[in-house]
Amino acid sequence: MSPEFRCDCPFTSALDILGDKWILVIVKQMLFEDKQTFKAFTESEEAIATNILSDRLKFLEEVGIIIKTKRPDNKKTNLYLLTDKGLALTSILVELATWSDRHLRDMHPTIVDGEAIELLRNDKTAFASIIEKKYREKLATTP
Fold first, then answer.
1. Which of 15, 65, 81, 106 could make an S-S bridge to 86, C-beta 3.0–4.6 Å?
2. 75 — pLDDT class (breaks 50, 70, 90)
3. How many independent structural domains does the chain possess?
4. 5 domain-assigned
5. Bridge partners of residue 71, in order along the sequence
6. Which domain holds residue 112?
7. Does 57 map to a domain?
8. Model-level pTM?
9. Distance from CA of residue 19 to its chain's centroid?
10. What CATH number does the domain containing 126 carry?
11. Between vectors from CA 26 to CA 69 and to CA 38, what angle results, nearest 5°?
């Protein structure tokens, strides 16, 4: 399933890869919620259907945003990990969260609030750096 690009516009081309409603949710779950296995994704509050999840994970692997490997202690379990290309989406997710915090809170007042959101509001760059650093540290300890 190679990606098809509608035109040569860089914005539209990015949306051809990232524009599906589940793609960035999966990347967010990996980056912010430490999801690494199919089972962990299916147990998320977003409730992605298993057939869609399977399709999107394959697509993300195909375009180089994630890699699939086996768990060293259980060769039956696949681990899904972000690549550098996937980690490069951190700033996009941070910007989406910032926009949501500023513009959707009046329509959706139960959006998460707290210390992390306060850091996001005050210093997006530091917030993104912390998230990416934590992910890279976790990745370094994953056998």
1. 65
2. confident
3. 1
4. no
5. 74
6. 10-141
7. yes
8. 0.89
9. 13
10. 1.10.10.10
11. 45
| Residues 25-54, mean pLDDT to the nearest whole number | 94
In a domain, 82, yes or no: yes
Between CA 96 and CA 114 the distance in angstroms is 17
Structure tokens at 57: 């994970």
At 57, the amino acid letter reads L
Tokens of 59: 């697509």
CA 125 to CA 112: how far, in whole Å? 19
Where do runs of H (alpha helix) occur along the chain?
A: 10-18, 23-33, 38-42, 50-62, 84-87, 90-103, 115-122, 124-141
- The SS3 of residue 25 is helix
Q: Which two tokens stand for residue 62?
A: 């195909």
The residue type found at 96 is L
How far apart are alpha carbons 55 and 19 in whole angstroms?
Answer: 15
Provide CB contacts within 8 A for 126, sequence distance 6+.
Answer: 119
Tokens of 43: 């147990």
